[in-house]
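Duplicate of #3305? Posting structure anyway:
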């Protein structure tokens, strides 16, 4: 009977393709939009991911996410270091400063100041140069996206393309000279501004002078000390906000989920994909069953039970569901592959695949239920009418 069910399905080529295309479109739309949403949310904590050595981030109690900068006094660093269980703690400056371009324009840069002695918090990957070169006078490291795009030099030939920033080139940050000693590669951030690394002491000279300059304290727990318990201890001792790396990531994502319209916009698109897939696949599958009622009636007249017909319809639904899901996910993955390295945020996780699979399963089961009800109520005598 399974072969009969498949012959019925594949025999009506037009409706088979229609059902598969409806499920493919639904699977593609839901998977793609959810993956872009996850990619965007991952970019919100990209800077935290790149700063992988510290266990704990200490900040002002009012900080809500990684780019919500509320500087602290430098004396807070010693208070954090004095907490029992802290192996080391280093200062980090993070701020938005303007760099002057060759054409006289300005580009806002995310300037990161690392501890002068240890350079903890530096870029995860160096494309050119070494991190230790930051100890040279007036030296900075620029991320490769900023170097090739927003901070690129004017064309060597009039009318030609801009020249990427190279090691040895100079920048002007807040009217102070900066010499590029390295090019780094890191995770793209939500704001997509060029990232410039330098030492902490040099970063605070680039920034406008204020009483409070330190953005974060990066800390490491001693071996055997639970980072979450140490965070509670730091908060109780200093009155500052202390978060583990994963907690700070979740806090950052939570801020964007709560205070932006991104989840609603992507959620609407995903729901529309589900509804459209349900409408197309459900209607087409029901019409397919309607056109084959005489065949089902004949099988009933020959002694086939309702359970047998139920298995046949479920098999047909399973086949079109798997084919449609596979094609949709494959197209979504191809989109991610083709846009990899570009500005499009795309991150295909197994959770996204599972949600998409569940949605397609619901669509196919609901479509099958409409057909099952029709077939169960079918009278075998229909084959003798007309």
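Output from current build:
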């Amino acid at each position: 009977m399974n072969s009969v069910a498949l012959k019925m399905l594949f025999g009506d080529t037009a409706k088979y393709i229609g059902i598969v295309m409806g499920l493919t479109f639904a699977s593609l739309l839901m998977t793609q939009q959810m993956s872009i949403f996850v990619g965007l949310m991952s970019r919100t904590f990209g800077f935290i991911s790149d700063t992988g050595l510290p266990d704990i981030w200490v900040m002002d109690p009012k900080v809500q996410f990684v780019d919500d900068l509320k500087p602290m006094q430098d004396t807070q660093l010693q208070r954090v270091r004095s907490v029992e269980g802290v192996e080391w703690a280093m200062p980090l400056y993070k701020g938005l400063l303007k760099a002057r371009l060759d054409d006289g324009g300005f580009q806002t840069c995310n300037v990161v100041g690392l501890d002068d002695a240890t350079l903890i918090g530096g870029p995860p990957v160096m494309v050119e140069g070494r991190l230790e070169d930051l100890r040279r006078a007036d030296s900075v490291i620029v991320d490769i996206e900023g170097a090739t795009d927003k901070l690129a030099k004017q064309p060597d030939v009039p009318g030609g393309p801009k020249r990427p920033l190279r090691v040895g080139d100079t920048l002007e940050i807040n009217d102070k000279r900066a010499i590029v000693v390295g090019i780094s590669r890191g995770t793209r951030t939500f704001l997509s501004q060029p990232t410039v690394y330098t030492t902490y002491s040099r970063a605070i000279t680039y920034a406008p002078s204020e009483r409070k300059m330190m953005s974060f304290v990066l800390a490491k727990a001693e071996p055997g000390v639970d980072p979450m318990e140490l965070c509670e201890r730091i908060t109780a001792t200093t009155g500052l906000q202390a978060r583990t790396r994963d907690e700070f990531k979740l806090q950052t994502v939570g801020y964007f989920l709560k205070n932006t319209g991104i989840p609603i916009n992507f959620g609407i698109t995903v729901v529309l994909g589900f509804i459209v897939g349900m409408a197309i696949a459900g209607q087409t599958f029901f019409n397919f069953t309607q056109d084959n009622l005489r065949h089902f009636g004949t099988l009933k007249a020959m002694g086939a039970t309702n359970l047998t017909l139920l298995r046949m319809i479920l098999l047909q639904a399973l086949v079109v569901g798997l084919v449609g899901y596979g094609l949709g996910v494959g197209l979504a993955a191809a989109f991610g592959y083709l846009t990899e390295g570009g500005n499009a945020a795309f991150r295909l996780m197994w959770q996204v695949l599972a949600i998409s699979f569940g949605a397609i399963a619901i669509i196919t089961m609901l479509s099958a239920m409409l057909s099952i009800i029709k077939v169960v109520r079918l009278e075998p005598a229909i084959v003798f009418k007309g």
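Confirmed duplicate; merging threads. Residues 44 and 191 are 8 Å apart (CA to CA). The longest helix spans residues 306-338.
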